[in-house]
């Protein structure tokens, strides 16, 4: 953790047991290197020092040498989980790794810090909420960079560098994706591609576990965690501790599949079933995550990190990001491509507009049609669980706070172009960097767990950039893919399927999320949650109380109804969770009123 001042003249907050040097207060593991008038502070770890020829020197000195030899762009060749601060007499550079796996960076015109709570301690902090950003959170579950929940605060994105000089602050991308296009089909055979991928994957695991003899793995019962385990066992013969999460009383649980994987590859297995009471941990999660944040896997990550306990493996392998690296939503991408190419998009947009009204916001066939149209028409926007625009007009006290973000123009040169654009602009820049890996890494830090992500290896990333789309999303044509006749992550499955149990490869993957209604199924707990929300000042300051009360009453009624569609119930529960998370955040960061350690007290 750290907090600093751009120009060395600001008054830094006092933090117990922290060190202050060079205009920065830092606490915890920080490696510093200084030469002449330049100082570099490094938080995190590097994985490819040996490949770069720096295997015998400290991480901080490695970054300093890379910067000295290659300048800012040299940071793009570093694979790791890190945040570094490089200060000269007249400038400051702040750099985050490609996926933002280490400390987040919040900043104002005067200060920067690794957490919103630390930044809030700085002199003259302006706690005016960013109402437009908060309305965006209610819609998508997070606040996209560079915005934050406060009007005078910005966030540095993953894979970006922040530069301060002569009173000016600018940011730039180390890994731009605007010009990436699909690669043509090469003369390599499928087996050659598969062998290269497998070698890179094994190498990524080897770099991350090093010489450890105490390795852990998160085990879901699907391909990604299973392939990690198969590759790990191929190069490591020691004990492996595996951890899995299920859901009490719910058919979505994958614990039996995780046990099957554990037995196949001989792990020491531990599991836990979420029962809904975990929502009591939300205040601590809000503190840890900074901006309001809700995602279907939030409590899964919390539960598994808590499950690990004090007897921690040296390193824990997570399977996150593999879906997005290969590209997701192939069917929706194909549908968007086809309806656009055949002139049907205006009609579909009109139908979506008609269905985006309160009259159709019930669990009917119209709701389901709108749900699917939303995914197809807004293919580059990512998942839009939460309150859509027509609901926010009623939900917000001032509806003008809600504004649509600028939309990317879909690349319609071919299905492959659109698929590639979606993979990088939506899957990578939004879902991987700002949702999945942000959440997983921050919650791991909360429990002091050393969680790593082999699929996010820089060499694997470069390999997949060279891989033809047909080996990522296998299908004979956009028409067949639009019908669902496709295989996602084709290359990964082609190589690893023979190594995994049939029970794993034959079952459709659920995904790393919880059935969110589980947190609102208990009547007494739901009543206490409702009391918390309605007594929060966010309802009077930002939200329309009448609409919030109506939403809660309708949810209470629907919670006792059987037979509602899974995704209808899931979205309603996520909306409820969004209201609760915003209420907790508002009381902690804006009003500093309630100090409840548990939501349900």
UniProtKB/TrEMBL annotation:
It catalyses: L-aspartate + L-glutamine + ATP + H2O = L-asparagine + L-glutamate + AMP + diphosphate + H(+). L-glutamine binds at residue 59. The record marks 320 as: Important for beta-aspartyl-AMP intermediate formation. Its EC number is 6.3.5.4. GO terms for biological process: asparagine biosynthetic process. This is asparagine synthase (glutamine-hydrolyzing). One of its GO terms (molecular function) is asparagine synthase (glutamine-hydrolyzing) activity. Residues 202-567 form the Asparagine synthetase domain. Belongs to the asparagine synthetase family. It comes from Parabacteroides acidifaciens. ATP binds at residues 218, 245. Pathway: Amino-acid biosynthesis; L-asparagine biosynthesis; L-asparagine from L-aspartate (L-Gln route): step 1/1. Keywords: ATP-binding, Nucleotide-binding.
């Amino acid at each position: 953790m750290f907090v600093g001042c751009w120009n060395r003249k600001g008054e830094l907050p006092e933090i117990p047991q922290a060190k202050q040097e060079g205009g920065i207060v830092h606490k915890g593991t920080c490696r510093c290197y200084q030469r002449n008038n330049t100082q570099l502070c490094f938080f995190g770890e590097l994985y490819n020092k040996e490949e770069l020829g720096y295997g015998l020197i400290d991480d901080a000195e490695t970054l300093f040498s890379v910067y000295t030899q290659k300048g800012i762009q040299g940071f793009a060749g570093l694979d790791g989980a890190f945040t570094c601060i490089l200060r000269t007499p007249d400038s400051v550079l702040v750099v985050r790794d490609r996926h933002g796996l280490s400390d987040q960076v919040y900043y104002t015109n005067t200060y920067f810090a690794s957490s919103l709570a630390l930044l809030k301690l700085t002199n003259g902090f302006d706690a005016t909420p960013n109402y437009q950003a908060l309305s965006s959170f209610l819609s998508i579950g997070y606040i996209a960079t560079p915005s934050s929940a406060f009007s005078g605060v910005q966030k540095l994105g993953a894979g970006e560098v922040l530069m301060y000089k002569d009173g000016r602050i600018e940011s730039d991308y180390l890994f731009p994706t605007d010009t990436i296009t699909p690669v043509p089909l090469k003369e390599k055979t499928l087996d050659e591609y598969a062998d290269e991928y497998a070698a890179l994957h094994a190498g990524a695991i080897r770099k991350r576990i090093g010489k450890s003899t105490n390795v852990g793995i998160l085990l879901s019962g699907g391909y990604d965690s299973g392939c990690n385990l198969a590759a790990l066992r191929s190069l490591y013969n020691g004990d492996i501790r595996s951890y899995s999460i299920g859901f009490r009383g719910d058919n979505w649980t994958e614990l039996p599949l995780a046990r099957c994987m554990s037995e196949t590859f001989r792990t020491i297995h531990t599991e836990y079933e979420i029962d809904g009471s975990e929502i009591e941990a939300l205040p601590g999660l809000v503190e840890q995550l900074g901006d309001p944040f809700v995602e279907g896997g939030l409590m899964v990550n919390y539960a598994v990190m808590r499950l690990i306990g004090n007897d921690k493996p040296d390193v824990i392998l997570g399977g996150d990001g593999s879906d997005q690296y290969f590209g997701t939503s192939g069917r929706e991408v194909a549908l968007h491509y086809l309806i656009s190419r055949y002139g049907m998009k205006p009609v579909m947009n009109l139908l979506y507009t008609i269905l985006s009204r309160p009259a159709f916001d019930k669990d009917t066939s119209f709701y389901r049609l709108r749900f699917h149209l939303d995914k197809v028409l807004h293919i580059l926007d990512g998942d839009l669980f939460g309150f859509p625009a027509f609901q926010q007009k009623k939900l917000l006290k001032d509806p003008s706070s809600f504004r649509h973000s600028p939309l990317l123009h879909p690349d319609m040169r071919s299905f492959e172009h659109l698929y590639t654009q979606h993979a990088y602009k939506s899957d990578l820049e939004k879902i991987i960097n700002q949702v999945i890996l942000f959440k997983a890494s921050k919650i791991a830090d909360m429990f002091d767990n050393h969680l790593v992500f082999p699929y996010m290896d820089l060499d694997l990333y470069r390999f997949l950039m060279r891989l033809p789309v047909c080996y990522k999303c296998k299908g004979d044509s956009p028409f067949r893919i639009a019908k669902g006749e496709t295989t996602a992550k084709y290359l990964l499955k082609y190589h690893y399927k023979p190594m995994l149990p049939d029970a794993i490869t034959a079952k459709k993957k659920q995904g790393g999320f919880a059935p969110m209604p589980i947190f609102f199924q208990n009547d007494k707990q739901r009543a206490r949650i409702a009391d918390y929300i309605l007594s929060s000042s966010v309802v009077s300051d930002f939200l329309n109380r009448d609409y919030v009360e109506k939403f809660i009453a309708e949810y209470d009624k629907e919670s006792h109804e059987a037979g509602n569609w899974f995704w209808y119930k899931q979205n309603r529960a996520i909306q409820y969770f969004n209201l609760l998370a915003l209420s907790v955040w508002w009381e902690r960061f804006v009003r500093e009123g309630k100090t409840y350690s548990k939501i349900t007290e």
